[in-house]
Design a protein that fits this description.
Structural class: alpha/beta
Keywords: Hydrolase
Domain Alpha/beta hydrolase fold-3: 123-332
Radius of gyration: 19 Å
CATH superfamily: Alpha/Beta hydrolase fold, catalytic domain
Largest sheet: 8 strands, mixed
Number of strands: 8
CATH architecture: 3-Layer(aba) Sandwich
CATH topology: Rossmann fold
Distance between the termini: 28 Å
Strand content: 5-15%
Order of helices and strands: HHHHEEEHEHHEHEHEHEHH
Strand order of the largest sheet: 1-2-4-3-5-6-7-8
CATH class: Alpha Beta
Pfam family, one: Abhydrolase_3
Shape: globular
GO molecular function, one term: hydrolase activity
Protein name: Alpha/beta hydrolase
Number of helices: 12
């Protein structure tokens, strides 16, 4: 399986840019406090098959432990690292613009595997990128693989990015795409009762936000939400500290603060946030669709993802949680051949197949 296999999308482009913390150079106690957390070497907890990928970044971070991160640097590095894709001829891909919500701009989407006359399940996919970078086109090769693997129609949404368009702008784009997909199901060969939302990292956060909006507005009933290491809580790394060894690699607390502050249009981790903008702050989770959440045990998001899964279960939502041991954020993208990555994908693929089953 390739590095860009299903579930990576633009998230892989984003994550490859983030330097890990220099674990040997971290002074003082961890954010969570205490000698026990301080004594843990994060690298010692990484799955052996996943560790070689980190070595160049650990070496770079040793030379510059705390590089200055700005929106401009994220976007410059993202553009430099961007892979050039050649879409496969099959299943077919349509680059299309669909109507936005009233008073909102139209939305660009990529539709994969449309088959008029059929009643195929559909996946609405939202790309990753920390809420601040990424493009729907990045996900198309993976959506083509997903369309083939699951016999579905896949649609990737080019939602507007923060901070130029903070919440609720991206939600407006994603919801407009979902409405269009549902209302044009016959035209696309889609079964309107078998639509799922999926995303990785910030895309998983957007998928969770969209699922909440779909529940509240009552126009589209989703079959499931598939959340891969989703970005769910703006308080992580700000008003909610994390242990030193959690989030030490790839996507760190300072990265999280920039992404969420851009998305919310206010500093992350404050007393309040715009209603519906942060899944972890939503009080009532009842009525959300069956959920899969997958995350690595060393991912910055592991605690918030586990807590969200617990709250979903408490709310009566069928929920599957898979925590990959010794895995950092985006591990399946960087080392797809590792056993832990393959087991992770098998768990997620099983959840998708069950959601699509009739």
């Amino acid at each position: 399986m390739s590095r860009r296999d299903f579930g990576i999308a633009a998230c892989g482009t984003t994550l490859a840019l983030m330097l890990p913390l220099d674990t040997a150079a971290q002074p003082g106690p961890s954010q969570a406090g205490g000698k026990e957390s301080e004594a843990i070497d994060p690298a010692s907890l990484v799955d052996p098959e996943l560790l070689p990928f980190l070595q160049p970044f650990i070496a770079a971070a040793a030379k510059e432990p705390h590089p200055v991160r700005t929106l401009a640097s994220y976007r410059t590095e993202s553009a430099e690292a961007q892979e050039k894709y050649a879409f496969s001829p099959s299943p077919p891909v349509e680059d299309r613009t669909v109507s936005g919500l009233p008073g909102q701009p139209d939305v660009r989407v990529f539709i994969v595997g449309a088959a008029p006359g059929k009643r195929k399940p559909a996946m609405l996919h939202l790309h990753g990128g920390g809420y601040i970078i990424g493009h729907a086109g990045d996900a198309v090769p993976n959506m083509q693989k997903a369309a083939t693997r699951f016999g579905c129609v896949a649609m990737s949404v080019d939602y507007r990015l923060a901070p130029e368009t903070p919440f609720p702008g991206p939600l407006n784009d994603n919801y407009a795409a979902l409405l269009w997909l549902h209302r044009h199901a016959a035209e696309l060969g889609v079964d309107p009762d078998r639509i799922i939302v999926a995303g990785e990292s910030a895309g998983g956060g957007h998928a969770a936000i969209l699922a909440i909006a779909a529940r509240d507005r009552g126009e589209v009933r989703l079959r499931a939400q598939i959340l891969t290491y989703p970005m769910l809580d703006d308080r992580t790394g700000t008003s909610r500290p994390v242990p030193h060894h959690i989030g030490a690699f790839v996507w760190r607390p300072e990265d999280n603060r920039l992404g969420w502050s851009s998305m919310l249009g206010q500093p992350a981790g404050g007393d309040t946030a715009p209603s519906g903008s942060v899944p972890a702050r939503v009080v009532d989770l009842r009525g959300l669709p069956p959920t899969f959440i997958g995350v690595g045990s060393l991912d910055l998001f592991v605690e918030e993802d586990m807590e969200y899964a617990r709250r979903l279960l408490d709310a009566g939502v069928p929920t599957e949680l898979y925590v990959a041991p010794g895995a950092y954020h985006g591990f399946e993208a960087f080392v797809p051949e590792a056993e832990v990555s393959m087991i992770f994908r098998e768990a997620r693929d099983g959840a998708i197949r069950r959601a699509f089953s009739t």
